[in-house]
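Colleagues,

Please find the record for the two-part complex below.
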Amino acid sequence: MNRLVNISLVSITAIAFSACASSSANLSSVKGIDVEKVCSVQNNGIENVIQTAEKYNEIAKRNELEFRRLGVNNSDLIISVKEAIKTGANEVNPKDFKSKASKTKLPVEFAAHRACKFAISALTQANEAKTTWRLAVPGDGYEY
Amino acid sequence: MLTRLLKASVFTSLAFFSLNAGGFDAQAQKDKKELVKYFEAKFQNPYENKNRFFPYSTDEELKDGYAKGLKHMDFGIGSYSYAKDAKQQYEAIKEFPPYEDKIEEGEELYTKKFANGKSLKTCFPNPAIVGEYPYFDTKTQEVISLTTAINKCLEANNEKKWNTKKGQMAKFQAFLAYSTAEAEKNMDIKIPTKKAQEAYERGKEYYYTQRGYLKLSCATCHIQGAGQRVRNEKLSPLLGQITHFPVYRLKWGSLGTLERRMSGCIKDQGQVPPKDDSKKMHELLYFMAYMSNGMPIDGPDVRK
């Protein structure tokens, strides 16, 4: 019986924590972040950088803002870096969005930095755009 | 006296309701008017307007490569309205259009019986409907694109959904577009309610928002950049941009839907494109379609 109570308590706590995490995991969570600082592999270590990339890329995906470069989604770049960390490889060759091998080949540290920068920039850009998009509308903010 | 009072009340109510009904697209109408004004100004005389609109073009190409004095409806053929060289090539290809047999295949799909004995004709008794899509469904409170409507019809009849980008979907849409063009119909998008207006506004925001790792918006290329040369091609304008789909694109070597082209464009901005049947894609198309309101449907067509 005690075990059942414990399991329930743990489950409730986990749900409460995940709910808090997801509610705070919104676009504005990147406000004030210095991208170069948090994405620096030299200063933070590659594991921390890729964790940061993963955290913000999840938010970008939820908001349909994830970056894709040369057929490679940022999430696939993150996966390739994580695998390289495990295997000790110096270079990554991420899968493209069709799950086939891409033409992208990058040094692992550079890939981690890019993945982190892409994840945060997607959110920063979306925040900025809320106030700037009208500047491109003829008859509104765009003057010619 | 009572009759007069009654008549006055009925008149007032009718006026009130009709004003409100018309009010939901007031902003969209203004947006369209401003867009037409912008494009007409831009292509009045590209050479004389070099500093204002074409600072990176050469005098020579502006003098000889662009058509002048374009008006609203001229933009129906996209960049071929102003790109002289490209227009010549376009007209040459149109003499033997590479999509003609696809229209016939699309017509066969229209009447082909489902397992339950019905057909696409049951869902779309009038094939001349391309100008009415996407529309805002007031029952479900969402925008429905032509592609989604076709797949909904297939699903409702226990048939497998089609690929939203090419193949049967593109062929069937080619038949619908051809039928609409034959019936001389124009783009006719409605914004009937407040919710529809909100959907339009979200689509508009998507169009003008910079996205992807290249930080480009759709407008960067197709409004501010329209007519400017990228390598050897001149970028197309938003006006009339979706009146000619599906298109046979030389790059694809096949016929493709509007969603196929849109996904390609968003991917080129450096972002994962929204799914073809997603709310974002539907609302983006809703905005774009409204901007072409009143322009003739002339699909299917050919593009590079």
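Residues 14-20 of chain B have pLDDT under 50 and may be disordered.

Comments are welcome before we finalize the supplementary table.
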